[in-house]
Amino acid sequence: MQFATINGVSLHYQVIGAPEDKPTMVFVNSLGSDFRIWRDVIVRLVGEVAIITYDKRGHGLSDLGESQTMDDHVADLEGLLDHLGVQHPIICGLSVGGLIAQSLYHKRKDLAGALILCNTGTHIGSDEIWNMRIETVQTKGLSHIANEVMSKWFTREFREENPAETNGYINMLTRTPVQGYIGTCAAIRDSDLSTLAEDISIPTICIAGDQDESTPPELMKQMAKTIPDAFYEEIKDCGHIPTVQQPEYLTEVIKSFMGKLSRTED
């Protein structure tokens, strides 16, 4: 395991190397998860890209930190990339990870080389939804919302066919520190990048799950239309977490996007 102190917070991260001529890809996980959600994608990319994954503050094995604002999350990723000496990586963010990826680009355009925005948006949910979620978790705990969250993460068919795996992801969710979870809920609530999307000038792809109720395809399509020259891909039979439900297809989409990048560079 690898750890680094960034902004006073111990971040848990992992680096998997690749030949020097290969690009670097950074994976940023969703709310209530840790970097293990990327495993089935990463194993299909080993050797083709250098890989960086990490647990954002308040999740996984990383420290909670004093706060979990979007500025905190962005500064942590910025600090980790500077710590590792990485420039112009492809940043692949899922859900809140996509907000972090976009926010990093707007703060440090020199850092990001391309964006893969999975099941995210420029603004996710409403103040009312997030305030209700925060209050529920504060008073009743994460276990109270676990089944509801799983119904968003995965389709009913997936949950019925994979009960052991679904229970494992319930464990991942409910073992997230409550303050880390609700702090990041507030970070999502308070983030609205809608007016900045048209300023994104690096290669970008927006990837949606056709049955994602948290960040529906319509939201992703609109984002792709707003970002200049952005690509759009929709994954069938997929909820909010394609890295688990459709890792093979998601990986092929990522590889196809990387192929477009290579042709552009040539």
What keyword list fits this structure?
11 helices; 17% strand; 266 residues
Describe the structure.
- This protein has 266 residues and is α/β, with parallel strands linked by helices.
- The protein is built from eleven helices and eight strands.
- It has helices at 39-42, 70-84, 96-107, 127-140, 146-153, 156-161, 163-174, 178-189, 217-226, 242-245, 247-265; strands at 2-6, 9-16, 24-28, 50-54, 90-94, 114-118, 204-209, 231-235.
- It has an eight-stranded mixed beta sheet with strand order 1-2-4-3-5-6-7-8, with helices on both faces.
- The protein starts with a strand and ends with a helix.
- The mean pLDDT is 97.
What's this model, at a glance?
The protein has 266 residues and is of the alpha/beta class.
Strand order of the largest sheet: 1-2-4-3-5-6-7-8
What's the rounded overall pLDDT mean?
A: 97
Question: Which spans have pLDDT < 50 for at least 5 consecutive residues?
Answer: none
* Main beta sheet strand tally, sense and closure: 8 strands, mixed
Question: Treating each run of at least 4 consecutive H or I residues as one helix, how many helices?
Answer: 11
Number of strands: 8
Rg calculated over all Cα atoms: 17 Å
Our measurement of the CA-to-CA distance between the termini, rounded to an integer number of angstroms, reads: 37 Å
- Tell me the overall shape: globular
Secondary structure: helix percent:
40-55%
Order of helices and strands: EEEHEHEHEHHHHHEHEHH
Secondary-structure-based class equals alpha/beta
Strand content: 15-25%
